[in-house]
Amino acid sequence: MYINDNDKDRILLVCDDKIVDTISAFGPLKKSGASFTASCPSCGAENGLSINPAKKVFKCFKCGNCQGKSSVAYLMHGHNMDYPTALKWLADHYNIL
């Protein structure tokens, strides 16, 4: 599916602060101070993935392979989606397009 630049920008704008919600769509999160933890989709380490919503970042401190600064990055690194597929998933999940 082709997503034009205007739609891509709209998806990224809407999803900019939804990193916690996006990651929680794949499993439960556990509150840990100002952050959250979850199972890492790359290595499977329980509570290995740390999500900081204020900084809009995530990182697995067990394997280090799953890390990034956006919902798109999480889908690409954690769930092996390419960029267009990640954008489509976000658009569908948040009813953007």
Secondary-structure blueprint of this entry?
Elements: H1 5-15, H2 19-24, E1 30-32, E2 35-38, E3 49-52, E4 57-60, E5 67-68, H3 71-79, H4 83-93
Antiparallel strand pairs: 1-2, 2-3, 3-4, 4-5
Termini gap: 12 Å
Principal-axes shape call: globular
- Which strands sit side by side, in order, in the main sheet? 1-2-3-4-5
Percentage beta strand: 15-25%
Radius of gyration: 13 Å
* H/E element order: HHEEEEEHH
Mean pLDDT: 93
Give the class from helix and strand content and strand pairing. Answer: alpha+beta
Instruction: Report helical residue fraction.
Output: 25-40%
Sketch the major β-sheet. 5 strands, antiparallel
Can you tell me the residue ranges where pLDDT is under 50 for at least 5 consecutive residues?
Answer: none
**Strand elements, count:** 5
Q: Count the helices. How many?
A: 4
Describe this entry's structure for a reader.
It contains 4 helices and 5 strands; from the N terminus they run H-H-E-E-E-E-E-H-H. The radius of gyration is 13 Å and the shape is globular. The protein has helices spanning about 5-15, 20-25, 70-80, 85-95; strands spanning about 30, 35-40, 50, 55-60, 65-70. The longest helix is centred in the N-terminal third of the chain and has 11 residues, at about 5-15. The two termini are about 10 Å apart. It is of the alpha+beta class and about 100 residues long.
Highlighted features:
97 residues, alpha+beta, five-stranded antiparallel sheet, 5 strands, 38% helix, globular
Summarize this, please?
This protein is α+β, with helices and mostly antiparallel strands and 97 residues long. The chain has helices at 5-15, 19-24, 71-79, 83-93; strands at 30-32, 35-38, 49-52, 57-60, 67-68.
